[in-house]
């Protein structure tokens, strides 16, 4: 506790009156006349009982003034000099400002000047830190461009600047999710984002306990499923659990009791205001049991069922501590508002924008569905949290045309009552994503104040960080944003594998901007390196369009281009990069090179060249060797096999209501590899084929059963008995998942396939009509051909026969 102070005498000592200062302070910035003073007549005053972040704020101010003026202003607990920078909360600063610290908004900061003194304070724990950085930036002209680069203006005459401001950000939680922020806590604080820095001297961070997709985190299937399968979602007659496979059975009362018990245990170490996540796993396998379906039918939709469960958890949390919150997701099958169930007052809804077209403002007609959803959620949600996507997860280096409406989207969230924002950018490319240094700076500034002019911010960063090359970066962004306006109907989601909206001419013009930028700073090694690192993204993107490598004039030949990849990857490492997709392996430099090689190989083969000659050229001219070359060859042959395999029929799922389910064995399968892809010619699918020499396996990935590192085609066969014929209308084969492409025969009759983009179908179930192939009251033989391009391959989820009426 602070000791009692004689405030009138202290106010007189600093020559201030609280009523005068309070009247002069506004919520916007004010520019006064700079005051030249002697540095030896200045002190930084911090209370003796200051918290760690206020002490750190004093040191940051001291260091900043040293950088600018070359002087050391002493840090003291009581003022004895003519001029003072008062840091943090105290009885004195409260009296001077006329504020009650308990009534300050989250992260509110005050930069106040009256006569020859400054007060830099705010809501604990971060307000004083933010006030110091605010004064250094806007009062003294300091710029924190990146974690490694700060521009310190130099001055010989010490002065007190002409800047005051009181401001509270609209979002209490602000996360610019980039590795350039996540890995650098000190920089995150300077950017006023508050979800990264865990150190007390940096003000700590806003913690969301569990973060997201916590059904399996709090009740992991690995721990509970064997004893309590009924706690997990029923899908097509089978209970499934796990982060990628299933959900919880939300109407199960025993599960609810255990879940609440776990949540309260997780909350035990936390104090007032803590927030815990209670949200579905990252899949759409919600429970289909009778009770869950009946609740949905009676109350509205899946969101009603989720909220009924979350509300019960929130009620228990409120009894534990009325200041705590429970957060949940409005995501995929729960994005729409509930029909009847309303969230409790201590429930925070986190609405996700994942389905949106991010090349257009979120309030535009291109995102009409989301616009409707957020308007509806505003009516029912006490607090709204937004999970927004601001990158392309398929290729972090690919241009994203969302620059001009970054601020508009955030202001839309403010207008709809959002109190917290998670802006998910890219974690992995460092400074070599899509102009990620600029994106981090601009996004952080807008999270702090969405009303900032995004175009002014872009210009400020471009000219300040890239110097003479700045105008070319501004021109680059203009080209990118103009392209989407000319081609508005192309997909611009957060998993867009191609930027088709960026036509070839615009692509080349954007690349030319970076080339001119390099020339403009060629005589400045520091600026040149910044530009070279920033240009990596558009250079890598060009490899997705091999024709442009030559057409643009970037390279004299394709072989020259591939030879240059090592230089680009070296720059990427220098810029802190290590991957270019959300997948560590799929986005590695090695994988990116392989994918570029695959694209080039496809082009050559599609142009009529022999695949063996293409592979020889890839090895000789383009530098692909060993595993890379093998992977490229197999990738092409994989797609060629998929597209040209002679067995293919139209697949239609039979209609009807399940009346009986027959689970196929998980063990006792016969398996063989088929590296030459000739098994169909040998009639592996025929009932008469002798598979006695094949390996015995489970219906599981073959890598874990003696075929490690094998990528290619594998065949599975299983024998099972069907009951006597019933009055069913149709018979369906349900396959839990095949990694990745699958062709299926039953009793020698071809019944269908599951084809598609490998990364989209490898874990998805599919069903086939086998009504005309099943043999009633007899032994049946099921044959499945699986083709895998990489990583684990094969059948790996349960199969079953379902009788329909």
Characteristics:
Chitobiase, domain 2, TIM Barrel, 4 domains, six-stranded mixed beta sheet, 26 helices, 36% helix, globular, disordered N terminus
Describe the structure.
The chain has 805 residues and is an alpha/beta fold. It folds into 4 domains: 7-168, 2-Layer Sandwich (Chitobiase, domain 2); 208-474, Alpha-Beta Barrel (TIM Barrel), CATH 3.20.20; 479-644, no CATH class; 658-804, Jelly Rolls, CATH 2.60.120. Helices cover 36% and strands 17% of the residues. Strands 11-19-18-17-16-15-12 form a 7-stranded parallel beta sheet. It has a 6-stranded mixed beta sheet with strand order 3-2-4-6-5-10. A 6-stranded antiparallel beta sheet has the order 22-21-23-29-26-27, with no helix packed on it. The longest helix is centred in the middle third of the chain and has 19 residues, at 302-320. It is globular. Residues 1-20 have low confidence and may be disordered.
Summarize the entry for a quick read.
This protein has 805 residues and is α/β, with parallel strands linked by helices.
From the 3D coordinates, which CATH architecture of the largest domain would you assign? Alpha-Beta Barrel
Helix-residue proportion: 25-40%
N/C terminus separation:
75 Å
β-strand amount: 15-25%
In total, the number of strands is 31
Give the C-alpha Rg.
Answer: 31 Å
Number of helices: 26
Mean pLDDT: 91
| Main sheet makeup | 7 strands, parallel
Provide the CATH top-level class of the largest domain: Alpha Beta
| Gross morphology | globular
Topology:
Blueprint: H1 7-14, H2 18-24, E1 35-36, E2 42-45, H3 52-69, E3 75-76, E4 83-87, H4 91-97, E5 109-114, E6 117-122, H5 127-139, E7 143-144, E8 150-151, E9 159-160, E10 165-167, E11 173-177, H6 179-182, H7 185-190, E12 208-209, H8 215-218, H9 221-224, E13 233-235, E14 238-240, H10 253-267, E15 275-277, H11 290-299, H12 302-320, E16 325-330, E17 347-352, H13 368-380, E18 383-389, H14 406-415, E19 418-424, H15 436-448, H16 454-466, H17 470-486, H18 504-520, H19 525-542, H20 546-551, H21 558-563, H22 565-574, H23 589-606, H24 611-621, H25 626-644, E20 658-663, E21 669-673, E22 695-697, E23 713-721, E24 730-735, E25 738-739, E26 741-746, E27 749-754, H26 758-761, E28 766-769, E29 779-787, E30 794-795, E31 799-804
Parallel strand pairs: 2-3, 2-4, 4-6, 11-19, 12-15, 15-16, 16-17, 17-18, 18-19
Antiparallel strand pairs: 1-9, 5-6, 5-10, 7-8, 13-14, 20-31, 21-22, 21-23, 23-29, 24-28, 24-31, 25-30, 26-27, 26-29
């Amino acid at each position: 506790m602070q000791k009692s102070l004689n405030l009138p005498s202290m106010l007189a000592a600093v020559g201030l009156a609280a009523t005068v200062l309070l009247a002069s302070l506004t919520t916007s910035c004010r520019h006064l006349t700079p005051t030249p003073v002697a540095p030896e007549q200045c002190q930084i005053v911090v209370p003796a009982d200051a918290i760690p972040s206020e002490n750190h704020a004093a040191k940051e101010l001291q260091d900043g003034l040293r950088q600018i003026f070359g002087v050391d202003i002493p840090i003291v607990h009581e003022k004895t000099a003519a001029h003072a920078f008062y840091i943090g909360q105290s009885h004195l600063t409260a009296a001077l400002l006329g504020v009650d610290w308990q009534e300050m908004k989250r992260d509110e900061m005050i930069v106040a000047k009256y006569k020859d003194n400054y007060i830099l304070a705010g809501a604990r724990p971060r307000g004083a830190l933010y006030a110091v950085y605010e004064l250094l930036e806007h009062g003294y002209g300091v710029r924190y461009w990146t974690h490694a680069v700060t521009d310190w203006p130099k001055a010989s005459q010490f002065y007190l600047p002409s800047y005051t401001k009181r401001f509270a950000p609209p979002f209490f939680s602000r996360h610019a999710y980039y590795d350039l922020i996540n890995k650098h806590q000190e920089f995150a604080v300077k950017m006023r984002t508050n979800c990264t820095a865990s150190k007390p001297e940096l003000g700590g961070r806003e913690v969301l306990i569990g973060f997201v997709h916590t059904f399996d985190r709090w009740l992991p299937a690995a721990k509970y499923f064997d004893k309590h399968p009924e706690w997990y979602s029923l899908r097509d007659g089978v209970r499934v659990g796990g982060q990628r496979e299933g959900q919880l059975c939300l109407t199960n009362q025993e599960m609810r009791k255990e879940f609440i018990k776990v949540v309260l245990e997780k909350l035990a170490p936390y104090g007032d205001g803590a927030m815990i996540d209670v949200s579905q796993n990252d899949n759409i396998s919600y429970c289909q049991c009778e009770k869950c379906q009946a609740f949905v039918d009676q109350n509205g939709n899946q969101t009603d069922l989720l909220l009924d469960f979350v509300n019960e958890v929130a009620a228990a949390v409120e009894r534990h501590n009325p200041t705590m919150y429970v957060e949940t997701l409005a995501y995929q099958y729960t994005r729409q508002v509930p029909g009847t169930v309303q969230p409790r007052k201590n429930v925070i809804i986190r609405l996700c924008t994942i389905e949106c077209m991010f090349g257009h403002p979120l309030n535009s007609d291109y995102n009409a569905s989301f616009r409707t959803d957020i308007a509806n959620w505003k009516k029912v949600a006490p607090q709204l949290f937004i999970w927004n996507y601001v990158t392309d997860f398929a290729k972090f280096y690919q241009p994203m045309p969302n620059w001009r409406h970054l601020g508009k989207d955030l202001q839309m969230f403010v207008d709809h009552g959002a109190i917290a924002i998670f802006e998910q950018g890219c974690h992995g490319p460092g400074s070599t994503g899509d102009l990620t240094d600029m994106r981090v700076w601009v996004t952080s500034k807008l999270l702090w104040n969405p009303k900032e002019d995004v175009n002014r911010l872009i210009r400020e960063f471009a000219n300040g960080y890239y110097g003479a090359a700045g105008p070319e970066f501004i021109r680059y962004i203009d080209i990118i944003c103009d392209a989407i306006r000319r081609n508005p109907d192309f997909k611009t989601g957060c998993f867009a594998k191609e930027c088709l909206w960026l036509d070839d001419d615009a692509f080349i013009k954007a690349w030319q901007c970076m080339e001119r930028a390099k020339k403009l700073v060629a005589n400045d090694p520091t600026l040149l390196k910044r530009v070279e690192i920033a240009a990596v993204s558009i250079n890598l993107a060009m490899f997705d369009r091999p024709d442009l490598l030559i057409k643009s004039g970037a390279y004299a030949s394709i072989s020259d281009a591939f030879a240059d990849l090592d230089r680009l990857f070296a720059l990427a490492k220098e810029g802190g990069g290590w991957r270019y997709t959300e997948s560590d392996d799929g986005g590695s430099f090695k994988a990116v090179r392989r994918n570029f090689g695959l694209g080039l190989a496809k082009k050559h083969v599609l142009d009529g060249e022999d695949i063996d000659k293409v592979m020889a050229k890839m090895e000789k001219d383009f530098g692909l060797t060993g595993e890379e070359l093998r992977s490229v060859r197999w990738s092409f042959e994989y797609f060629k096999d998929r597209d040209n395999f002679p067995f293919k029929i139209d697949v239609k799922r039979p209609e009807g209501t399940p009346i009986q389910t027959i689970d196929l064995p998980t063990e006792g399968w016969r398996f063989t590899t088929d590296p030459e892809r000739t098994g169909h010619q040998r009639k592996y699918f025929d009932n008469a084929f002798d598979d006695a020499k094949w390996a015995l396996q489970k219906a599981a990935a073959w890598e874990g059963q003696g075929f490690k590192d094998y990528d290619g085609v594998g065949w599975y066969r299983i024998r099972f008995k069907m009951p006597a014929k019933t009055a069913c209308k149709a018979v369906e084969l349900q396959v839990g998942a095949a990694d990745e492409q699958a062709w299926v025969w039953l009793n020698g009759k071809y019944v269908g396939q599951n084809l598609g983009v490998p990364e989209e179908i490898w874990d998805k179930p599919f069903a086939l009509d086998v009504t005309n192939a099943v043999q009633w009251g007899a032994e049946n033989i099921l044959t499945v051909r699986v083709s895998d391009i990489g990583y684990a391959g094969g059948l790996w989820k349960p199969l079953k026969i379902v009788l329909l009426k």
